[in-house]
Design brief:
The structure is a homodimer. Chain A is of the alpha/beta class. Chain A is built from 14 helices and twelve strands. Chains A and B meet through helix 1, helix 2, helix 3, helix 4 and helix 5 of A and helix 1, helix 2, helix 3, helix 4 and helix 5 of B. Bound molecules: pyridoxal-5'-phosphate (2 copies). Chains A, B: Its cofactor is pyridoxal 5'-phosphate.
């Protein structure tokens, strides 16, 4: 009888397992995983990997030593995104203070919805949002952490729509005129995903032209807005980008703000990637005009290395729009007869119910290095990129798409056999095949990782992202040598 | 010159900080935080807490010892959700294998969007989803982990809409007839939030009546669907609940499936809370008929103690509906000329871009205890609840709303001074004030946490959630004693 009421978890056994896992994490992920003499990835074909991992879930449990092997295997076969030679995505690197914050977040295991269950984090999120808003140039406002920049973009879309037509919340889009959104051809795909998800439809996302550097052209924006109006639709949102995903371009926010003002449109700045330049006195001019926006999305999990996920939506609004737009006022969670100020129950500002605590890791990192330390990281990334670009210019076969504005360096690599043949009819077709082959070779050898993609009429080119605080000059030299080594025989 | 290219992070210093944090986590969160002689919460007024935490973000960084104090403070003032006397939410407790998986996930810091950057997790998520689907009764199908059950419910809504009217993705809701959703009056508020967010509108969520136990009444559903049709709307989704948030009721899925079949509607089962009964041979009958659903949302972060966030949407569909509905086919991420099977790039199944890895913690826990171990946890929770209910019946002043179907026990506590006065005019009004006062006292003393809420015409009652694997008989006895101690003088 008593056994039925005994706790099912043995703390000392559990804590031992956790300690052993911690050791494996330090050794495999943090030491080996950031060691340039070790591989970035240990490529396996899916069938083989599935077999190695023995993924099947069974009726009976396994002994601790077996489970620790599994922990090791997961670490071994996972990509080392903290490795200095992981140039593949807009995230990477590691910051130990942030990581400590993340472990603590996981251990505390609470939800950011009420002050009751998250007193520390309600106040902390508020303070971190305030700090970010200050960098935007706002002394007041609102905001929330979202599960990713895509969600931030979608929240902005929902807010813009609600502000113009509050009845949409109860009645839906029926009865409203057709709404249109404006964004550049190089903006993040989440704008279109958002339009589809929110019932607006991708056809109602009007694509604005970009200049050679990938920046939205305000004149084209203005014309497209007027055209859309003349066709009977109601423009309600311009979603600009500060740091585009592929080219790292900054839309000219100040000019766009003029257009938005003229047409009275909500201006959203998707600064998921570029927002971090706001820490830098030297580079924040790239976002001049951002303080005129209605909302800004910013992902500290990218350039600031805060760790996935960390994405803030910042608002200039002081009218509680976020809560009015998203609230459902559930009486089981957001009781109004609580003994504390129920405005501290921030959960109803989101469309989520459970919401992960994403502020602690950023807060702890910020406390550790200060705004000045974060500024230094941003400035160094620009210095690294400058170095990389100058080195590329010294070497044959590296052709930049254009001078980078930010820390994305986009280039084609032309193998020796193709050099001088730029005018040949099949040159572009052959060039398009170079990057995928180099990528396959680098993945299979595991020496580094970098992404490639086509863009508009430009065939496959590499996009190298150089911002990790673990990066050194050697890694950039290695990068260039390695591209040559892998591609010279093509 | 060289300093400009030196890495900004010192690994040994960083790893030392991480180790020290790990020690604090074990001591403060896992040892003290689960020790019944320690407080569940250390209540502070917001102003005082803000002052204690010194939240402000400054220009300069702080020394390591100071930062470790901050780590300690965050732990100290946070709610101990793993504490056996945290009865406040549908999450709580701790599982060390899951926690180990969460630490590893954080350290590996990758995104679940391509096989390239998440080879282990693409395969693992697939296997975990397969395991969950098997419990639903499906040998085939699809699915995805979402940032919470609310998102799972919204995805289901978007899928149902897209299946009926695929053109909605490009054209939006304009041109479509008014769509209606059906859900019970006790379903989770995310159904309404979703309808607002997706442009459908909360007015188009038709609320179906529940019986005394809080279960949807299929006959009322059928009638409401016919009425909605007769009013010219197009019903497209029934969102039922398996384990309602407050009362823990299970909608009669089999009967609802008949109604859905008759009207050809998408049947979604929100089993965020109740889904875990599927592990139990003894209790899975509560969800009889679930295999007839089109989609099931299930949060292993609740009853299974997998840790926040862990929420799966499961689909019976085998036509790639999820990808067709949500994809944007971004060429920079989901290149089609990769050297491996691009179907492994699962990211386009989501409206998210970055997506946290939520499968590892569940996988590791499942491997550790097996399906049999998870079954045992579910069965024990029912045994605990049975004990609690029987003890309540033995004591004066505890009045159940009804016999619990699941592990939510809803009850009023009537202080001695009010007993026998049930017929008095102000009885309900006075009763409504009892729970908030007891709650305030318990928070300020920090001895335990339990939630209360009103529901329909029922005034404030307590909802105690008893499922944590750390729970013992003593904790339940304590719970009852403590309610009496805190409320007897009211
Ligand atoms: C410019 C831009 N906006 C938005 C996003 C989406 O952010 P998330 O991946 O956090 O959803 C990205 C992702 O790379 C991005 O580059
Ligand atoms: C029945 C039910 N559905 C959905 C949800 C929402 O899940 P989440 O909090 O993960 O968004 C909850 C949350 O408690 C719930 O109880």
């Amino acid at each position: 009888m008593l056994a039925r009421f005994k706790p099912l978890i043995d703390h000392s056994e559990g804590q031992l397992f956790l300690s052993e896992t911690f050791k494996i994490i330090v050794e495999e992920v943090l030491c080996k995983g950031t060691d340039v003499t070790q591989k970035v990835c240990d490529w396996k074909e899916p069938e083989e990997l599935a077999w190695l991992l023995d993924l099947e879930l069974r009726a009976t449990g396994e002994p601790q030593h077996k489970l620790l092997e599994r922990v090791k295997d997961v670490a071994k076969y996972s990509i080392k995104t903290s490795h200095p030679r992981f140039f593949n995505q807009l995230y990477g690197g590691v910051d130990y203070h942030s990581l400590a914050g993340r472990f603590l977040t996981e251990a505390l295991n609470t939800n950011l919805f009420t002050y009751e269950v998250a007193p520390v984090f309600v106040l902390m999120e508020n303070e971190v949002l305030r700090g970010l808003r200050q960098l935007v140039g706002w002394t007041e406002g609102d905001g929330i952490f979202c599960p990713g920049g895509s969600t931030s973009n979608m929240f902005a879309m929902n807010l813009a729509r609600y502000q113009l037509f509050p009845e949409v919340k109860s009645r839906g889009l029926w009865g409203l005129p057709r709404l249109t959104v404006f964004t550049s051809s190089e903006s993040h795909y989440s704008v279109k995903k958002g339009a589809a998800y929110l019932g607006i439809g991708t056809d109602n996302v009007i694509v604005v032209k970009v200049d050679d550097g990938g920046r939205m052209i305000p004149k084209d924006l203005d014309e497209k807005i007027m055209l859309a109006k003349s066709q009977g639709t109601v423009p309600f949102l311009v979603s600009c980008t500060a740091g585009t995903t592929v080219q790292g371009a900054f839309d000219p926010l100040d000019h766009i703000a003029d257009v938005c003002e003229k047409h009275k449109l909500w201006m959203h700045v998707d600064a998921a990637w570029g927002g971090s330049v706001l820490f830098s006195k030297q580079h924040r001019h790239l976002m001049k005009g951002v303080d005129r926006a209605n909302s800004v999305g910013w992902n500290p999990h990218k350039m600031l290395v805060a760790g996935l996920q960390c994405s803030a939506l910042l608002l200039q609004d002081t009218t509680n729009l976020l809560r009015r737009c998203h609230s459902a006022s559930a009486s089981y969670l957001f009781q109004q007869d609580k003994f504390y100020d129920v405005n501290l129950d921030v959960g109803d500002k989101s469309v989520q119910c459970s919401r992960k605590v994403d502020c602690l890791k950023l807060w702890l990192m910020w406390k550790a290095v200060g705004s000045a330390g974060l500024e230094e990281r941003v400035d160094k990334a620009f210095i690294h990129v400058r170095y990389l670009v100058e080195e590329m210019k010294k070497r044959e076969g590296f052709q930049l798409l254009h001078e980078p504005e930010f820390v994305n360096v986009c280039f084609w690599f032309t193998p020796p056999s193709m050099r001088g043949n730029e005018k040949h009819a099949d040159y572009q077709e052959r060039l398009a095949k170079v990057a995928p082959v180099i990528k396959e070779r680098m993945m299979k050898q595991g020496t580094m990782m970098v992404g490639y993609q086509p863009l508009g009429n430009k065939v496959n080119f590499f996009r190298v992202i150089a911002f990790s605080p673990l990066l050194s000059k050697k890694d950039m030299d290695f990068f260039l040598d390695e591209i040559e080594r892998l591609g010279n025989d093509l």
